[in-house]
Design brief:
about 80% helix; mainly alpha; 5 helices; Four Helix Bundle (Hemerythrin (Met), subunit A); globular
Protein backbone atom coordinates (compact mmCIF):
# COMPACT_ATOMS: atom_id res chain seq x y z
CA UNK A 1 0.00 0.00 0.00
CA UNK A 2 1.46 3.36 -1.01
CA UNK A 3 1.60 6.34 1.35
CA UNK A 4 -1.12 8.05 -0.68
CA UNK A 5 -3.40 5.01 -0.34
CA UNK A 6 -2.71 4.86 3.41
CA UNK A 7 -3.56 8.53 3.77
CA UNK A 8 -6.80 8.07 1.78
CA UNK A 9 -7.76 5.10 3.97
CA UNK A 10 -6.99 7.13 7.11
CA UNK A 11 -9.08 10.06 5.88
CA UNK A 12 -12.00 7.79 5.02
CA UNK A 13 -11.81 6.18 8.45
CA UNK A 14 -11.59 9.60 10.12
CA UNK A 15 -14.73 10.79 8.33
CA UNK A 16 -16.67 7.58 8.95
CA UNK A 17 -15.97 7.65 12.70
CA UNK A 18 -16.39 11.39 13.24
CA UNK A 19 -19.21 12.86 15.29
CA UNK A 20 -21.58 15.35 13.61
CA UNK A 21 -19.68 18.18 15.36
CA UNK A 22 -16.35 16.87 14.04
CA UNK A 23 -17.80 16.53 10.54
CA UNK A 24 -18.93 20.14 10.67
CA UNK A 25 -15.44 21.19 11.70
CA UNK A 26 -13.95 19.14 8.86
CA UNK A 27 -16.24 20.89 6.40
CA UNK A 28 -15.23 24.32 7.70
CA UNK A 29 -11.58 23.32 7.45
CA UNK A 30 -12.13 22.07 3.91
CA UNK A 31 -13.79 25.33 2.93
CA UNK A 32 -10.86 27.30 4.36
CA UNK A 33 -8.38 25.05 2.54
CA UNK A 34 -10.13 25.30 -0.83
CA UNK A 35 -10.56 29.05 -0.49
CA UNK A 36 -6.82 29.39 0.19
CA UNK A 37 -6.05 27.26 -2.87
CA UNK A 38 -8.38 29.42 -4.97
CA UNK A 39 -6.65 32.61 -3.79
CA UNK A 40 -3.23 31.27 -4.78
CA UNK A 41 -4.63 30.07 -8.11
CA UNK A 42 -6.03 33.54 -8.83
CA UNK A 43 -2.65 35.07 -7.96
CA UNK A 44 -0.97 32.69 -10.42
CA UNK A 45 -3.69 33.25 -13.05
CA UNK A 46 -4.60 29.54 -12.92
CA UNK A 47 -8.20 30.15 -13.93
CA UNK A 48 -9.45 26.56 -14.01
CA UNK A 49 -7.84 25.67 -10.66
CA UNK A 50 -9.37 28.79 -9.10
CA UNK A 51 -12.80 27.90 -10.53
CA UNK A 52 -12.63 24.30 -9.30
CA UNK A 53 -11.71 25.31 -5.76
CA UNK A 54 -14.24 28.15 -5.56
CA UNK A 55 -16.89 25.60 -6.59
CA UNK A 56 -15.70 23.28 -3.80
CA UNK A 57 -16.24 26.07 -1.27
CA UNK A 58 -19.67 26.75 -2.78
CA UNK A 59 -20.55 23.04 -2.44
CA UNK A 60 -19.59 23.06 1.23
CA UNK A 61 -21.69 26.18 1.88
CA UNK A 62 -24.58 24.53 0.03
CA UNK A 63 -24.24 21.50 2.32
CA UNK A 64 -24.32 23.76 5.37
CA UNK A 65 -27.48 25.44 4.08
CA UNK A 66 -29.15 22.13 3.29
CA UNK A 67 -28.62 20.86 6.82
CA UNK A 68 -29.92 23.91 8.69
CA UNK A 69 -32.66 23.07 11.16
CA UNK A 70 -35.17 25.91 10.94
CA UNK A 71 -36.92 24.92 14.16
CA UNK A 72 -34.15 27.01 15.76
CA UNK A 73 -34.43 30.76 15.12
CA UNK A 74 -30.65 31.10 14.61
CA UNK A 75 -30.94 28.97 11.46
CA UNK A 76 -32.45 31.95 9.61
CA UNK A 77 -29.39 34.02 10.49
CA UNK A 78 -27.02 31.30 9.32
CA UNK A 79 -29.02 30.94 6.12
CA UNK A 80 -28.56 34.65 5.41
CA UNK A 81 -24.81 34.44 6.07
CA UNK A 82 -24.48 31.38 3.85
CA UNK A 83 -26.51 33.07 1.07
CA UNK A 84 -24.23 36.11 1.32
CA UNK A 85 -21.11 33.92 1.10
CA UNK A 86 -22.56 32.07 -1.89
CA UNK A 87 -23.15 35.35 -3.71
CA UNK A 88 -19.64 36.57 -2.91
CA UNK A 89 -18.20 33.29 -4.18
CA UNK A 90 -20.15 33.65 -7.43
CA UNK A 91 -18.81 37.20 -7.80
CA UNK A 92 -15.27 36.05 -7.01
CA UNK A 93 -15.52 33.24 -9.54
CA UNK A 94 -16.86 35.47 -12.31
CA UNK A 95 -14.22 38.13 -11.73
CA UNK A 96 -11.45 35.87 -10.38
CA UNK A 97 -11.22 38.47 -7.63
CA UNK A 98 -8.68 37.79 -4.89
CA UNK A 99 -10.08 40.46 -2.51
CA UNK A 100 -13.53 38.90 -2.54
CA UNK A 101 -12.01 35.49 -1.83
CA UNK A 102 -10.03 36.95 1.06
CA UNK A 103 -13.24 38.42 2.49
CA UNK A 104 -14.96 35.03 2.24
CA UNK A 105 -11.90 33.38 3.81
CA UNK A 106 -12.07 35.77 6.76
CA UNK A 107 -15.72 34.83 7.35
CA UNK A 108 -14.97 31.11 7.01
CA UNK A 109 -12.10 31.27 9.48
CA UNK A 110 -14.24 33.14 11.99
CA UNK A 111 -17.03 30.60 11.66
CA UNK A 112 -14.59 27.68 11.93
CA UNK A 113 -12.91 29.14 15.01
CA UNK A 114 -16.27 29.83 16.64
CA UNK A 115 -17.31 26.25 15.93
CA UNK A 116 -14.10 24.99 17.59
CA UNK A 117 -14.93 27.04 20.68
CA UNK A 118 -18.47 25.63 20.74
CA UNK A 119 -17.07 22.10 20.53
CA UNK A 120 -14.61 22.76 23.36
CA UNK A 121 -17.31 24.23 25.59
CA UNK A 122 -19.58 21.29 24.79
CA UNK A 123 -16.85 18.85 25.76
CA UNK A 124 -15.87 17.71 22.27
CA UNK A 125 -12.20 17.65 21.44
CA UNK A 126 -11.52 19.21 18.02
CA UNK A 127 -8.50 17.10 17.10
CA UNK A 128 -8.27 18.46 13.59
CA UNK A 129 -5.46 20.83 12.71
CA UNK A 130 -5.89 24.39 11.53
CA UNK A 131 -5.00 24.83 7.86
Amino acid sequence: MTNQNRYAAYEKSRVMTASPAELTLMLYEGAVKFCNIAIVAVEKNEIEKAHINIRKVEDIITEFQATLDFKYPVAKDFDKVYAYLQQRLIDANLKKDKEILEEVLTHLRTMRDTWKEVMQKAGSNPKAHTP
